[in-house]
Write a structure and sequence with these properties.
The chain is an alpha/beta fold. Helix content is 42%, strand content 17%. It has an eight-stranded mixed sheet with strand order 1-2-4-3-5-6-7-8, sandwiched between helices. Strands 11-10-9-12-13-14 form a six-stranded parallel sheet, with helices on both faces. Helix 9 (224-236) crosses helix 15 (335-347) and helix 12 (301-308) runs antiparallel to helix 17 (358-365).
Length: 383
């Protein structure tokens, strides 16, 4: 498809090559970056769609969630002729449709949940802004179709409706009715991941230390303290391993990262965000094990990319992980179990190759690939 770019303030609209037989889709994305951008870029590759994208850069997430509907209501052209409106749950769709009743007349309005604010972990209850979750609930109610990237995402959202509204002092909505209304229009459609070519490590690892990779955001919800505490213990016991700490870091970096840099020292192969995707995939292809200790994960693109690159994924028995990864050899129940697994791999790195074969990796990852999900996304937009 061909997209011609024209700038309008700090948003960008990509009008497509027109074809009378194409389904006309308006994508409204307040946070065009990361997985949100990856999904939209994938949608733009699908055939028989005439896509117009209105977006804002992926900055200041909280303000995008609070105010983008008003801004979009002013910049989306009037009398726009579309068959489908597609947005992420960052947008307050109910607010946009109330400000622009002409958009409410679009036959099919779809909202995609990359995450949900009802189940998003906060360090203290006072940090939870009720309005973010409330906006997502209203968005579900005005949408025609609500799509979640995992069953865990959908179930956690619906199951948290009751506890969430307990924060409201009185005149609460009927939770059962609300749950039914949302479930009846919801479906699970996994995030489409552009997976690397499966490349299992076949060389002997007997003389090479175990290479562990941690590819997550440097934030508290990814639980880096648990991960590094295990590495510190392995280090204290003189186990032989190397580690690459990847993922984005922001203004407020948890102190544990500074401690890890000092304590692990020469055991660190790489420490920090990589702008180059090719350099990133090279590190994944050289690593042996990818670890998550997360307290928050609704899907986990980075883990799947690493798993398809030949890294054995070690994941906790919570969140989305049991939905995606086989119990054996991937899932652990406690941090101590994770420690014991890594300790055994430090002493026998060759065991990783025996457990995470190309066949197991394909069976685990391929169903989430862009190729496998193309038809389902086409059906979502065209039916």
């Amino acid at each position: 498809m061909i997209f011609k770019r024209r700038d309008l303030s700090n948003i960008k609209i990509f009008p497509p090559k027109k074809n009378k037989e194409n389904m006309k889709v308006l994508i409204v994305e307040p946070f065009y970056g990361g997985s949100h951008k990856q999904l939209i870029d994938f949608l733009m590759t699908l055939p028989n769609l005439e896509i117009e994208l209105v977006q804002l850069p992926a900055k200041k997430w909280h303000w995008r969630a609070r105010t983008s509907a008003l801004y979009f209501s002013q910049v989306i052209p009037k009398k726009i002729d579309k068959d489908v409106l597609f947005c992420s749950s960052v947008l307050n769709l109910s607010e946009l449709l109330s400000l622009r009743p002409d958009l409410a007349s679009i036959k099919k309005k779809i909202v995609y949940f990359h995450e949900n604010q009802l189940a998003y972990p906060v360090q203290t209850i006072k940090e939870r802004d009720f309005q973010f979750g409330y906006n997502q609930i209203l968005t579900c109610l005005v949408a025609d179709k609500v799509v979640f990237n995992s069953a865990f995402n959908l179930n956690s959202f619906v199951e948290k409706l009751g506890p969430y509204f307990k924060l409201q002092p009185d005149f609460r909505p009927n939770i059962q009715q609300l749950s039914n209304d949302i479930r009846n229009k919801s479906e699970v459609l996994h995030f489409p991941v552009k997976l690397p070519i499966y490349s299992m490590k076949t060389a002997s690892l007997e003389d090479k230390p175990l290479h562990i990779v941690w590819p997550h955001r440097w934030e508290h919800d990814k639980n880096p303290e648990a991960f590094f505490d295990i590495l510190f213990k392995l280090h204290e016991e003189s186990e032989n391993f190397r580690v690459s700490i990847l993922g984005e870091n922001f203004n407020e970096i948890p102190e544990i990262f500074n401690s890890a840099h000092k304590i692990l020292g020469s055991k660190i192969i790489h420490f920090g965000w990589l702008e180059s995707k090719s350099e990133y995939t090279t590190i994944l292809s050289e690593a042996d094990v990818v670890v998550s200790t997360a307290n928050h994960e609704f899907f986990g693109v980075a883990m799947l990319e690493a798993a398809a690159s030949g890294c054995l994924p070690l994941v906790p028995n919570r969140l989305v992980y049991p939905e995606i990864y086989p119990k054996d050899p991937c899932i652990y129940n406690t941090d101590n179990q994770l420690f014991k697994k890594l300790k055994s791999f430090c002493r026998r790195p060759d065991l990783v190759r025996q457990l995470w074969t190309e066949e197991v990796a394909r069976d685990t990852c391929e169903k989430y690939s862009t190729e496998s999900l193309t038809a389902k996304y086409l059906s979502l937009l065209q039916s």
